[in-house]
Amino acid sequence: MPCRANAPPGELVKAVEEFNRGEWFECHETLEELWVGEKGELRDFYQGVLQIAVALHHWRNGNFKGALILLQGGGECLRRVSSVCLKLDVAQLQKDAARFLDELSALGEERMAEVDPGLVPRLHLLS
Q1: What's the rounded Cα separation, in Å, for the pair 68 and 82?
Q2: Which of 15, 44, 48, 74 could form a disulfide with 52, with the two C-beta atoms 3.0–4.6 Å apart?
Q3: Beta strands per DSSP E along 1-127
Q4: Measured at the alpha carbon of residue 69, what is the angle toward residues 63 and 75, in degrees to the nearest 5?
């Protein structure tokens, strides 16, 4: 299925809902099922979203280094993807994840819990 397909698969919709509820580990599990069989741009897309979800899971659990590494890696994957993929606003996710990464980096490990909750990225499906 190409990135520009008309409708996202049901599992991606489920992953978006999990991500936006802060169920980042569950989102990772859902996306992993999609990611495994893909190639090219779709593989990068799923891997990027998956890594950002796991990064947020690490952040919530106090794993500063894991959060930084996965936010960077997820951003790198998404830079290889169209700005919209399967109706998901990839450009907005990239922007939000980069802003979160900048804030987390600036605060450092000792103050990582002080990241403004309003900066937590959300996934946006476009109509």
Answers
A1: 23
A2: 74
A3: 84-85, 88-89
A4: 130
96-112 mean pLDDT: 97
Q: b vs e for 30-58, b when ≥16 Cβ sit within 10 Å of the residue's Cβ? A: bbeebbeeeeeebbbbbbbbbbbbbbbbb
**C-beta of residue 41 within 8 angstroms of C-beta of residue 3:** yes
Cβ(57)–Cβ(24) below 8 Å: yes
Q: Cα separation of 47 and 38, whole Å?
A: 10
Which residues lie below 8 Å from residue 21, measured CB to CB, with a gap of 6+? none
Tens digit of pLDDT for each residue in 42-86? Answer: 999 999 999 999 999 999 999 999 999 999 999 999 999 999 999
